[in-house]
Specification:
single chain; 256 residues; Rossmann fold; Helicase, Ruva Protein, domain 3; 2 domains; two-stranded antiparallel sheet; disordered N terminus
């Protein structure tokens, strides 16, 4: 388990913002998992939603005590565990569920990568993250903020930047602005390329984003040569579909 102080958690004190975040979640979401409820800023509003089957996962023991005291109706559905380590398929017995939370800054990207792992079970996510992370999530190719998170999330989800949240609504106030985003599962059911290799190609190229594709892929291709118009480009210039095409080319060359 990760201690609370390492999570970069900032607790929301503005009830208006909390209510607005909860209202951003689709009314049709029946099974809802709150990630890191902390002091329960969102929890109270989530419990007011009609016909909602709410579970919450919280790693911090002090927060668990607080939630048990102020939201006793949540006790049967309160999981004291690390979201990143939790088997999400067991929380709602294999049923679909939405996720929501004021996500800790330090692990927000990891939270979304876990969402991708369970993409067939999670049709919707509403979350508050650091503003620059939100901007990366929604960035289109050709944009300097376009990167690994942009490509891997947008492959499976439609992403909306809903609104900006200022520092003074948190305790303690962070040094950066936050933003609320909504992810809605798109129509992509299967990839038209090797998914594991797609992820590897995306990460390999963006980890050396100043290099051309040709140079960044050298460790992956080893002594093999791939000729393609993409090879003289940089990763932020490639759309998601072009990354899929590049992945198919890489796979073909690796098999030769």
């Amino acid at each position: 388990m990760r201690p609370k102080k390492s999570l970069g958690q900032h607790f929301l004190k503005d009830k208006g913002i909390a209510q607005r975040i909860v209202q951003s979640l689709s009314p049709s979401s029946v099974n809802v998992l709150e990630v890191g409820p902390g002091t329960g800023a969102l929890t109270g509003f989530l419990l007011q939603r009609p016909d909602t089957n709410l579970y919450a996962v919280e790693v911090d023991g002090e927060s668990i005590v607080h939630l048990n005291q102020y939201y006793p109706q949540l006790i049967p559905h309160l999981i004291n565990d690390d979201f990143l380590e939790l088997d999400l398929s067991k929380v709602f017995n294999g049923e679909l569920f939405s996720a929501i939370g004021n996500f800790p800054y330090n692990i927000s990207s990891q939270i979304f990568f876990k969402v991708i792992k369970y993409k067939d079970k999670i049709p919707e996510v509403v979350g508050m993250v650091q503003k620059e992370v939100a901007e990366r999530m929604v960035a289109a190719h050709g944009n300097k903020t376009y990167g690994i998170l942009s490509v891997l999330l947008q492959r499976w989800y439609n992403i909306e930047y809903l609104f900006t949240v200022h520092e003074n609504v948190f305790v303690p106030p962070p040094k950066v602005k936050s933003a609320v985003v909504r992810l809605t599962r798109n129509q992509t059911m299967e990839m038209d390329c090797n998914e594991a290799l797609f992820v590897k190609v995306v990460k390999t190229t963006f980890n050396q984003r100043r290099k051309t594709i040709r140079n960044s892929l050298k460790p992956l291709l080893e002594d093999k040569t791939l000729e393609h118009e993409f090879m003289v480009m940089r990763p932020e210039q490639l759309s998601i579909a072009q990354f899929a095409e590049l992945t198919r080319c890489v796979e073909q060359v690796m098999k030769e």
